[in-house]
Every structure is written in structure tokens, then in C-alpha cells.
Amino acid sequence: MLGRAGVVTVDEARGILDMGLHPLPLDVERLPITAALGRVLSSDVVTDRPLPEFPRSTMDGYAVKARDTFGASDNLPALVAVVGEVLMGEEATQPVDKGQALRISTGGMLPPGADAVVMLEQTSPAGDDAIEVYRPVAPGENVVQPGEDIKAGETLLTRGHRLRPQDLGALAGVGATEIDVFRRVRVAIINTGNEIVEAGSAPRLGQVRDINSYNLMGLIQSDGGVAVRVGIIRDEYESIRAALGSALKDADVVAITGGSSVGTRDLTARVISDMGGPGVLVHGVSVKPGKPVILGVASGKPVFGLPGHPVAVSVSYELFIRPVLMRLSGEIDPIGLAGIPPVRVVSAKMTRNYSSSQGREDHLRVAIERIDGELYARPILGKSGLITTLVRAHGTVVVPLSKIGLSKGETVEVRLFD
Residue 161: pLDDT above 90? Predict the structure, then answer.
């Protein structure tokens, strides 16, 4: 039952859900790296070749023997004979002997006998076939050695890593053009309510268009999941049970919006519990908005009963569904610390006082403003049923359980929306 004595804290709710959830591993699929951005690796990537595979110049200049430049200065430059040029994309076969240099471009292969590159701007022509060098270089200077970037046999990326653009570049660099990843997590969205109609419909008085399933769909897709909109289901036990049963067969997670608050139409909790143990694990969390949220497990899969208000849906998703998606996707916490939010955070000062109830974690929508070169957080006030309070906001500020509000000028952390 909901009520002050029945609710649990956010951390307690997460712990209860974590202990009650025992997911099976996802299937694995092989993809070209062109389609793998944002996917989670199912196995370590061990390289079979170094990067680079030959010594390369990092500058436009001249490949030389470093000892030929020792002692060079503006007043007493070193004179070096230019005996040729390293062609880009070609193997450098012409050797560099004592007192000699070859012209070389950035990325060119260091020729045999050379062990450094003199930057072009540290030289000047001395006739048609010689240069004066005004700065000495050390052996290995301005050169990337074979395997300096990636060594052969090195573990480049580990299982559970979510692929970023730079990771795709590294994979391409070692010739790994196909990669094994976990299948995307499928999340079924069931929208309940006799008053809800499709977004493309013209609602009659007393009806409202579907907002929540589209909001949820975007949140799920932003986190790499596959959102499956089941449709709008009437507030009837048999209808909701049939929709949940079908969703549990096809999806890894189910989110039901509406029907989680106490009242005559509170069917979600009953349906979840009737689908098999353990059923409902948590019904009521000390958070605003989102207090009536339901966390449960049916047929071994997590099922969430979300309040009907759009802001409460977003807050509940961030607190409970997003961590579960990360766990089910096979992703490993890159920081290794529980509770680190996978979102960008900026510091800002409050533009006004804000009151909150002690004993309840409050998620305040704010807009970021720049005033006299400093960032400020302006509260976006309004009921949790107003989707525009999310549209106008840039992120949220969490007021902890122990606080009764925030003061004007107080520095807060703003969790930015994606």
C-alpha cells in the first residue's frame, strides 16, 4: 500500500529490484563497425597487428640522423645534404647516411638509417640540395614508433564496453571491420487509460493524446534500447493482463504507464503480481514526482508501473529503468562506482529559493542561464502533468531527502538532459 509508512527511498528501491532481478545473458550478433556505434561489446577485442606498423613522421620536415643535428643553433646551424624525398603511401627504401636528410610529410614512413624528423620551420634552404638546421632533435623526436599507439596482442577494448566514435576509429586502424556485440535490449511500452487516444487522433472533450509512450520511446532509444509501442490499453484487468503477457514473450523489459496510483483503477500492481512470482517488489518511492512507481519482476523480466504524468515518467525512467537497461545490455560501469550518473553534469547557482518537503527526494526541472559570465539554474515550476515543464528545461536538480529546499545563490549540480 502507498502511504508515508509504505514508501521506500530511491536507494532502497534500487537495492530491492537489483536483488530480485536475475536476467539471462543477451544473444550476440556480429556487425560491421559502420553499424556498431553505441553497441556493447560481447567479448574483448585483441589486436593481431600493431598500429602503426612502421615508424611514421608526425611532422612535415626532414628525416635525419639525430646526431647530425646535435649542437645546432641559430648562430651555428647544422648543414645537412638533402638526397631525396619520402613519397606518401610508399615504402621508404632509400637509406639516410651520415650528414644526409630526406624530405618527409606528416604520416610518411621513416626511411632506413633515420631516427628523427626535423620540423620544416626549424630549417632553411642552403642551396638546391642542402638545408641548415637551427634546432637539435633527439632520437625518436617527431616520430611515432611501430606499436606505439596499439601493440600486437594488446587488449584494445574489453567486453561490456559501449562503442564510441573514437573506438570505431581504433578498430578500423587495426583492420577489425566486424565486431561481436550484444543484442539491443527490447523494451515494450504499454500505455493504459480510457482517456488516452493516439497522437494522430482528434481527442474529444475528456480525452488526451498519447504523450508518455513517445517520451519513453525517445528515452529508451537514447540509451541504445529498442522501444516497442504495444498500444493504448483500456483500464480493464483482462486487457492489461493480455497485453503484459504478450509483451513478456517478445521484450526484455516492460514499462506500463498509468494505473500505478492508489484508486479504483489501480490495476497495474495486481496484474504484475498475478503474472507469477516474485511480482511487485516495490510500490511507492519517496521521490517527487514519481511516488506511486511500481517495480516488479514477472516471468524473470523487469516490469515497471509508471505514473501517468509525463514528468514523473521521465524521473522514474532515469532513476530505475535506465540502470536496468545498462545492466541488461551487458555494459560495464566504466567508472566502477555505483550511483555515478551516466549523464553530463554542470554546476550552476540557483536564481531563487525553492522549498521542498524533507523526507522526499525532489527532482526539480531547471533551465540554464548565463548571467555576467556565470551559469544559473532557473526553476521551471509547474505540475508534473505538464510536458512543457520538461520541454523548457535543460536538466534537473536533485534535492536530497535531508534538505527542505534550496537557497538563492546556492551552487547546485544540474543533470543535463541528453
Answer: yes
**Cβ burial, residue 335 (10 Å; 0-12/13-18/19+):** exposed
How far apart, in whole angstroms, are the C-alpha atoms of residue 176 and residue 196? 48
For Cα atoms 316, 321, 323, give the angle at the middle one, nearest 5 degrees: 115
Write 212-217 long-range contacts (CB < 8 A, 24+): 212/257, 212/258, 212/306, 212/308, 212/310, 212/313, 213/189, 213/257, 215/310, 215/313, 215/314, 215/387, 215/390, 216/187, 216/189, 216/255, 216/257, 216/306, 216/313, 216/317, 217/189
Structurally, at CATH architecture level, domain 345-416 sits in Beta Barrel (2.40)
The per-residue pLDDT for range 287-322, each reduced to its tens digit, is: 999 999 999 999 999 999 999 899 999 999 999 999
Yes or no: domain 10-26+183-328 corresponds to CATH 3.40.980.10: yes
The CATH number given to 56-144 is: 2.170.190.11
Q: Pick 38-51+148-182's CATH classification: 2.40.50.140, 3.40.190.10, 3.40.50.300, 3.90.105.10.
A: 3.90.105.10
Contacts of 126 (CB under 8 A, 6+ apart): 79, 132
Judge if pTM exceeds 0.90.
Answer: no
pLDDT at residue 335 in the model:
55
Ranges of H-type helices in 265-395: 268-274, 310-316, 322-328, 388-391
Give span(s): CATH 2.170.190.11, the chain.
56-144
Q: Is the dihedral of CA 64, 66, 68, 71 positive or negative?
A: positive
Percent of the chain's residues with pLDDT above 90: 82
Residues of the chain with CATH 3.90.105.10: 38-51+148-182
Residue 348 and residue 76: Cα distance in Å, rounded? Answer: 56
Q: Report the 10 Å Cβ neighbour count for 334.
A: 12
Mean pLDDT for the stretch of residues 318-346: 77
Do β-strands 253-257 and 208-209 pair in parallel, antiparallel, or remain unpaired? unpaired
Burial of 265 (0-12, 13-18, 19+ CB in 10 A): middle
Q: Which amino acid is at 272?
A: I
What is the Cα–Cα distance from 150 to 133, expressed in whole angstroms?
32
Q: Which CA distances in Å does 314 have to 33, 51, 225, 396?
A: 32, 44, 16, 11
